[in-house]
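[job 0412] stage=complex_fold ligand=adenosine-5'-diphosphate status=START
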Amino acid sequence: MNEIALAVQNVAVAYGEKPVVTDVNMEFPAHQITALIGASGSGKSTLLRSLNRMNDEIATVTGQINFHGVDINRPETNVYRVRQQIGMVFQQPTPFPMSIYENVIYGLRLRGEKDRTVLDQRVEASLKQAALWEEVKDRLQTSAQALSGGQQQRLCIARTLATQPEIILMDEPTSALDPISTNQIEATLAQLKEQFTIIIVTHNMQQASRISDWTAYFEQGKLVEFKPTDQLFMNPSEQRTADYLSGKFG
Amino acid sequence: MQKAEKQDRLATGLILGLAGIAALIVISLVAYLLITGLPHVSWHFLTSSASAFTSGGGIFDQLFNSFYLVILTLAVAVPLALGAAIYLSEYAPQNGWTNALRLAIEVLSSLPSIVIGLFGYLVFVLRWGLDFSLLAGALALTIINLPLLTRACETALQQVPALQRQAGLGLGMPKWQVTLKIVLPQALPGILTGAILSAGRIFGEAAALIYTAGQSTVNVDYTNWNPFAPTSFLNPMRPAETLAVHIWKVNTEGLIPDAAAVSSGAAAVLILTILIFNLSARGLGNYLARRLRK
Amino acid sequence: MENWHTYLTGASKERQQERRGRWLTSLALLVIGALVVTILLFLIAKGVRLFTTGEGKLTEFFFSPTWAPGAGVFGAAPMIVTSLIVTVVAGLIGLPFALAVALAVTEILPPVAKKLLQPVIELLVGIPSVVYGLVGLTVIVPAVRQLVGGTGFGLVAAVGVLYLMIMPTMTSMAIEALQAVPKQQRQASAGLGATRWQTIHRVVLPAARGGILTAMIFGMARAFGEALAVQMVIGNAAIMPTSLQSSAATLTSVLTTGMGNTIMGTAANDALWALALVLLAMSLLFNLGMRLVTKKG
Ligand SMILES: Nc1ncnc2c1ncn2[C@@H]1O[C@H](COP(=O)(O)OP(=O)(O)O)[C@@H](O)[C@H]1O
Ligand SMILES: [Mg+2]
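[job 0412] stage=complex_fold status=DONE, emitting C-alpha cells
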C-alpha cells in the first residue's frame, strides 16, 4: 500500500441546515491520481473544496482531515498555509488580468520572492510541467487573457504548480474545454503525479478510467465505493456503482 | 379596431408632444445659460479676483477654492468610502449589524445638504473650532458624498467575477491580498468613474458650504506653498467661498453692480466644468476598462 | 518540513494581513455608521431644545400661522405648508413630462434618440441647484412678474425652479424603470395584436409602476430638501401663503437666511434647529415611502 497524502475521517458538509455530504471516510494515496465521480449534485465539488478549506464561510464542515498527521479542519489551522500546500484548479480557467509571466509567479511574489533568476526558473519549470512552455515562451509578457481556453487552463495549472504544493485539487478542469485541449491536459496530469498528489473531480467516466489510479464513486453525498480504478470499473462490488457505470441512473 | 388605432395615434402624439415641450424647455435652458454666460467668460474673468463693490471682478479665487475643495473632500471621502465598500462587499456577514449599517448609509443619502451643512456648522465650525474653513467644508461635503461613493465602489467591486477571488484564495492568498491585488485593480475603472462624478457634485454644491467653508475669501498668497502659513493658498484652515456659493451670494446680496454678468459667467464656467467631469468620467472609465481587458 | 503541526497551525504574515485588512475596512464602515448616529443625535438634541426650555410649545409650533421669532412666537405652519405645496406641485407637474420623455425614448423613438439624450440628461442631473436658482432669478421671476403681476418672487417661481431641477432626475429614473420591463412582455402583447399605446397602457406602465412612483418620490424629496435655489426666488416672507403669487418661505429658505442672523442658544436660534429637525424627519419619511414602494414593486 502507498503512502497516504490526505486522510478524511467522518467528514460531513452542510450548507446551512442542508446536509450535502455525509460521513465520508477515505485515504488519498500520495503520488497518485484519485478521481471523484458521481452524478451531478452528488457532493463531489463540495467535498473537494472542503479538503483545502475553500468552504470556509460557505459551508459547515465537520470531521477530520489529516494532513501530515495534523487535522487541518480545525479553527486554529492556518488556512493560507494549508492552501499553499494543497492547491486548487477550477472548472473555469481564471487567469488574472496581467501577463503570462506575472500570472505564473503570482503566488511566489506574494510570499516575498524577489530574486529574478529564481522567478525566471520557476516560470520556465512550471510552464514546462504544465506543457505550455513551447507555446508561450516567446510571449511571456503578453496578457494571459489573450490565450485560448485550453492554454488558459494550463496556465492556471502552472500557476498552482509554481507555488509547489504537495497536493493539487482539480474540479472538472476540462469540462469547459474542447477535446484537443482536454487531451493535452490529461497528458500533463500523467506527468505531474511523479511530483504531486492529484485529486480530480470529473463527471466524465471515460476520463476517470483513462487518467486515474484510484476512483471514488459518490451518490447523494455518500461515498459508495473507493478502489483502484481498474477494479472499480471492471469489478464494482456495489450494485449502485455498477448501475451508474452502466448508465442506469436512479 | 379602428378606435384602438385612433387612440394609439392620439396617445403617441400626446407623449411626443409633452416630450417635445420638455426637450424644448431643457434645450432653451442650457442655451440660455451658455448664451448669457459665455460672453462674460474671458481670460481676465478667469484669472482676476472678485471685487467687493465695483464691477469688473473675476472669479479666480472662487474657481481655485472649488477645485481645492474637490481635492480635499475626495482625499477624505474616497478612502473612507472604499474601505466601507470593501468591508460590505468582501467581508460583511449576513446579519443584523450589516443591515443596520446599510440602513445608516441609506439614511445619510436621504438627508438634504442644508441639513448636513448645519450639522457641519454645529460640530466642525463651532464645537471643533475649525471656524469657517476649507477643512470644515471638506468634511461636510465628505458626509454628503459618502453614500454615493460607497455605493459606486461596492458596485464596482461586485462586478469583478467571483471566480477571480476563488483563484486567488486557492493560491493561499488571504482575502485582504486578493482584494487589494486582484479585485481592486479590476474594479478601478468603476471606482474612478464614481469619484469623478462625486467631484462634479462637490464642485456645484453650495447649500452645505455657506455655513462651513464660509462665504468670504481672505486675501491669499498664491506663491506661498506652505500649507501651514495663514496666508498660503493651500492652507485648509482659511475660509473659502466657492464658485457655486459665489453665484448665490452675489445674487442675494447684490452689492456689485454687474452681479448678473458675473453670476451668469460663473454659471457657464460651472456647467462647462461639470460637463468636463462627466465626459472624463465616461472616457476614463472606458479607457481603463479597455486597457484591463488587453 | 520537520514540524508540520507548527507550520500548519502557526502564525504567519498572511494571518496578520488578513486581520489588519478586516479591521481597517470595518473601521471605515463603523466610522460612517457612527457619523450617521451622531448627526441624528445632534440634530434631535438641538431640535427639541425649543420645547424643553419652554420657549416654544409643540401645538403652537405645528399649528400657529405666525412666525415671529423676535416676539417669541414660533409657528412653523407657514413653512411646513409652503414646503409641502411647492414640493407636491413641482412633483405633479414634473411627472407627466418626465414620463412622456421616458416613454418617448424607450417605447417610441429609435434607439439613437436615447443615445443622444442620455448624456444631456446626465448633464442636467449634474447641474448645480444654484444654477437653477439663477435661472429662476433671471428668467422665471421676470416672466411671472410680466404674466401674473406683483414682484414675481413667490410660490410660482419656486415651483418653476424646482420643476426644472427635479425633472432630469425623475426622467432618468423613469427611463430606468421602463427599461427594467422585459422585452418579451412587450413582444407578447404586440403579438396578440395590441397597439403600441395598448401595450404601454396595459403592460409596460403597470409593470413599471413601482419604479415610476419611486422616481416621483425621489424627485419630490430632492425638491423638499433644496435650499438655495428656492431661497433665491420665493421672496422669503414667513407667512402663510394665500395665493400662488404670494411671497412665502420654506423650511429650507428660513434656515438658509436665518442661521447666520441668530445667536446660538437663543430661542430664535433654537426655533431654527426645530425647523431643521422637521426637515430631517420629512426627508426620512420620503425615504421610507420610497422603500415601501420599492418593496411592493
Ligand atoms: N454554495 C452553495 N450553497 C448551497 N447549496 C449548494 C452550494 N453549492 C452546492 N450546493 C448544493 O450541494 C449539492 C452538491 O453540490 P456539488 O458539491 O456542487 O455537487 P457535484 O460537484 O457533485 O455536482 C447540490 O445539491 C447543490 O445544489
Ligand atoms: Mg461540481
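The longest helix of chain A spans residues 116-129.
[job 0412] exit 0
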